[in-house]
Design goal:
The protein has 386 residues and is of the alpha/beta class. It has 13 helices and 14 strands. It has helices at residues 10-19, 25-36, 50-59, 119-123, 131-149, 171-182, 202-211, 225-231, 240-250, 273-284, 313-325, 354-364, 371-374; strands at residues 3-4, 60-61, 67-72, 78-83, 89-96, 101-104, 108-110, 125-128, 158-161, 194-198, 215-219, 259-265, 293-299, 330-332. The strands form 3 sheets. Strands 3-4-5-6-9-10-11-12-13-14 form a 10-stranded mixed β-sheet, sandwiched between helices. Strand 10 (194-198), helix 7 and strand 11 form a beta-alpha-beta unit. It is elongated. The model is unreliable at 350-386 (pLDDT under 50). The protein binds iron/sulfur cluster (SF4). Residues 111, 113-115, 118, 120-121, 164-166, 199, 219 line the site of iron/sulfur cluster.
């Protein structure tokens, strides 16, 4: 069995090359071919010696996850469903905007945190993704989009780890994958443009700060422990005071001077004026200026098993007004890709019926790209507010 080179950061690839009796610098050439040029065949790598290419052919391969489906929304959002075997699938979503292209990627098949408002959480946890499975989402999306848009330059400028899974519960794969994203010989993304989103795994927030500080987003969703215990069960282990303290520690090493708090607006649950005022108090307890964090209010995407409803827009606006008036920068996320179920919390929609995926695989082979969508032109009518 050969090794998938998408599993390596540059250091790992250098060690692999040394194992083949090659100089470490060959790894840099190889890394560039893979990630900057999207090469998947060693014969394409014309500046590598033929003897090295032969060794690589015998011991390695470069292979993205099989695509189960691809959907392109009328607003330009693209969603891929990837097969991660064993009846599991994960999703990645590309969101084009005027000034950036953001890829939202998954870190786990399913999720153990079981947030009440999240359809991924409702399907349970299957397994951690490998480094290669995380990197594969970026590798595939970047090079597909370049070909599709006929662009030579980079299409994806931002990565958010906000897809399926809790990234900090898959830390050993997360960090090498982040290093590939940041490496100048690969995607060269700025630390400010790579965001890890966590539901609040406090010790691992500290580890991330030590090992690979990138932008941090925290799924808060409630201003007090009683409510957060109910919405984000991990809060029982790491309550809000500990979470906020970890955020403040993280700021010392973070590439941005603020933490983003994600707050899913749930009608009649966490969206009252009283909740907004509690948040103001929570933020100001750390700093009276309130400028160490930003809030991103997310319209909930209802799904039947949740028993929850989206807050009316007027309620969301009123909530944002209270936070903004207190000096806390607050934005409201515009929903994207509604016609393809691409929005947060819907990522697992197609995955939940695993039998369906297995039968698709067995009946049709590994790929089902819907032809009516596969070559649709991109548009960028809407923008996200954050
Ligand atoms: S919101 Fe994130 S942490 Fe919570 S269940 Fe969903 S994927 Fe897991």
């Amino acid at each position: 069995m050969t090794v998938n080179l998408l599993d390596f950061d540059l250091e790992g690839l250098a060690a692999f090359c040394e194992g083949l009796g090659e100089k470490r610098f060959r790894a840099t050439q190889l890394f560039r071919w893979i990630h900057q040029r999207g090469a998947s065949q060693f014969d394409e790598m014309s500046d590598l010696a033929k003897s090295l290419r032969e060794k690589l052919k015998a011991s390695a391969h470069i292979e993205a996850l099989p695509v189960l489906s691809q959907h392109i929304s009328s607003d330009g959002t693209v969603k891929w469903l990837f097969d991660v075997h064993g009846g599991n699938a994960i999703e990645s979503v590309f969101i084009p905007e005027d000034d950036r292209g953001t890829l939202c990627i998954s870190s786990q098949a399913g999720c153990a945190v079981a947030c009440r408002f999240c359809s991924t959480g409702h399907q349970g946890f299957s397994r951690n993704l490998t480094v290669g499975e995380i990197v594969s989402q970026l590798w595939f999306a970047e090079h597909f989009l370049r070909r599709h848009l006929k662009r030579q330059d980079r299409v994806i400028s931002n990565v958010v780890m906000m897809g399926m899974g809790e990234p900090l519960q898959n830390f050993t794969a997360l960090v090498p994958a982040l290093r590939v994203m940041l490496d100048d010989h690969a995607y060269g993304l700025s630390r400010r443009r790579v965001t890890v989103s966590t539901s609040g795994v406090v010790p691992m927030i500290d580890r991330l700060g030590q090992d690979c500080p990138v932008a941090l987003a925290v799924s808060l969703h409630a201003p007090n422990d009683a409510l957060r215990d109910n919405l984000v069960p991990l809060n029982k282990k790491y309550p809000i005071a500990e979470l906020v303290a970890a955020c403040v520690r993280y700021l010392k090493v973070a590439p941005r001077d603020f933490i983003t708090f994600e707050y899913c607006m749930l009608s009649g649950v966490n969206d009252s004026e009283g909740h907004a005022l509690e948040l103001v108090k929570l933020v100001r307890a750390q700093s009276s200026a309130g400028n160490w964090c930003k809030f991103n209010l997310i319209p909930f995407n209802p799904f039947p098993a949740s028993g929850l409803l989206r807050s009316p827009h007027a309620v969301v606006l009123a909530f944002a007004k209270i936070l903004n008036a207190a000096g806390i920068v607050t934005t409201i996320r515009k929903t994207r890709g509604d016609d393809i179920d691409a929005a947060c919390g819907q990522l697992a929609g197609e995955v939940m019926d695993r039998t369906n995926i297995q039968s698709r695989l067995s009946k049709r082979g590994t790929i089902e790209i819907r032809p009516e969508n596969a070559m649709a032109p991109f548009g960028s009518k809407d923008t996200i507010n954050d």
